[in-house]
Amino acid sequence: MKNYLFLITGTFFFAASVAIFAMPNSLAEGGVPGLALLIYHETDISPALTTLILNAVILLIGFRYLPKDMIIKSLVTIPLFSFFIYILEDITSGIPDPLLAAIFAGVFTGAGFGLIFRSGSTTGGTSTIARMLNYKFGWELTGTNFVLDASVVVAGIFVIGPLYTMYTVLALFIGKRVTDYVLEGFEAKRVVHIFSNKTKEVEHALQTSLGTHTTVLKAEKNADGVEENLIYVAIPKQRLFYLKKLVSSIDENAFTVVHTVKDVTGGSFAEAHHPGQKTFRSKKLERRYYKKQADEESFTPTADAVIENKK
């Protein structure tokens, strides 16, 4: 049910981008919607009709190259996209500033694409053609899709002119960034490298307090004869603050390096990885638990502090 909600919402955003921002402001797009827009700017035929016809023909030819679930969702997306364009295309006469129109077209397109992709569907068109060419000739999917989309954008020079083609390129760039954020930004991951001479204590605290899997890489002793091993851990972005607080409470001299990563799967991201790791019904409960754990850990005296106090 959630996937179909994403699909409908994403299709609406994409259709709004085409009908409200691209059509009245002489902008184009990549792929089949872009081709439909060029036809509209040249002949005044509504993209609601041309996208429906073009996508239906492409889907009919390439249905055997697509997974069954994707075909079913595409059968929902394609007519829904045309329907939304039809009801939105007469709402506005355009934005006086084409640069502003290009920016918002990119934002709406990116949000729409991101939600459609999260639902497991596609917008049809060039992505289907790319799959067909990959199946027949072994052509790489991403590169083929890019070439097909770029060909439509370049053709726009002869229809909407170089200036509005450049606005279109700007909209596509913004759309790509927004799509990446919708697909990955809400679940951003971080890889943390921790150098500490209290490896066992830090590792144990991370596993029990933050519920994460850790890997320890052995290191040679430094010039002072101290062995600082490397702890490698991947965590969701929202736990990073608590991790730093936790490590600092155990070893104030620990050296921490944080890297942004695009994707992490398996291990503690898939299921409970060890008996001490908890699972949660919601992100809110998860954040509340780890904040409490980090706060408690930061007020817990370390073994060295206890010995020092006894002295």
Q: Choose one word for the global shape.
A: elongated
Low-confidence stretches: 271-277, 302-311
SS-based structural class? alpha+beta
Overall number of strands = 4
How large a portion of the residues is in β-strands, by DSSP E?
Answer: 5-15%
Span from first to last CA? 63 Å
Number of helices: 12
Helix coverage percent: 55-70%
Give a structural overview.
It holds the Pfam family DUF2179. One of its GO terms (cellular component) is plasma membrane. With 311 residues, the protein is α+β, with helices and mostly antiparallel strands. It has two domains: 1-184, no CATH class; 189-260, Alpha-Beta Plaits (2-Layer Sandwich), CATH 3.30.70.120. Helices cover 61% and strands 9% of the residues. It has twelve helices and four strands. It has helices spanning 2-22, 31-43, 47-62, 68-88, 98-118, 126-137, 141-155, 161-184, 199-209, 240-250, 283-298, 303-310, and strands at residues 189-196, 214-217, 229-236, 255-261. A four-stranded antiparallel beta sheet has the order 2-3-1-4, with helices on one face. Helix 2 runs parallel beside helix 7. It is elongated, with a radius of gyration of 26 Å. The N and C termini lie far apart (63 Å). The model is unreliable at 271-277 and 302-311 (pLDDT under 50).
Short synopsis of the structure:
With 311 residues, the chain is of the alpha+beta class. The chain is 61% helix and 9% strand. It contains 12 helices and 4 strands.
Characteristic key phrases:
four-stranded antiparallel β-sheet; 12 helices; single chain; alpha+beta; 311 residues; DUF2179; 2 domains; elongated
